[in-house]
Amino acid sequence: MNSKKIRSALQGNHEEGFTLIELLIVMSVMLILMTLAIPQLLKLRKTAAETSAIASVKAIGQAELSYNSAYPQNGFSCSLASMGGVPGSGAPSAQAAQILDPTLAAGQKQGYTFNITNCTKVTVNNQDMFTGYEITAVPTSIGRSGDRGFCMDENNIMKTDAAGGTNCTTTLQ
């Protein structure tokens, strides 16, 4: 026997590659890992959306203070759009103050809907002046984009609604 035949006999006639059972085992392990990872990924996404909503409510609250300072005859704004506006599109005005990010001024951001409600006003010299407001942030899809709703009033006190609505009763720590 020559050396080539001996080597072939010792190594066997195996083809290279994976068997069907090996592939099935690898796919099963991957499926199990995905089953464990996907719920955690969704939970992280909801947490990120809630954190963004809290930061956005605080940004709207800061914009309200800036608006009140820039337009004292109007008091606070009762509209996200009036604090928005595209920077550089003209001079800021009480209807487009350009102090709030245009995306946030549109009322939607990262799975949450923002609004300004419960505005209180007084009339001074035939001019309406808003003296109070409530900023609300609710998930666009409760349980998917977020679990909690958030509210803040003119005193900058942030509260939450565990049901995802605007009935905010628990102070955010």
Automatic annotation (TrEMBL):
InterPro entries in alphabetical order: N_methyl_site (IPR012902), Pilin-like (IPR045584)
A Pfam match: N_methyl
Residues passing through the membrane, by range: 20-38
Signal peptide boundaries: none
Family matches, as SUPFAM superfamilies: Pili subunits
Superkingdom of origin: Bacteria
Record keywords: Membrane, Transmembrane, Transmembrane helix
Protein name: Uncharacterized protein
Native species: Granulicella tundricola (strain ATCC BAA-1859 / DSM 23138 / MP5ACTX9)
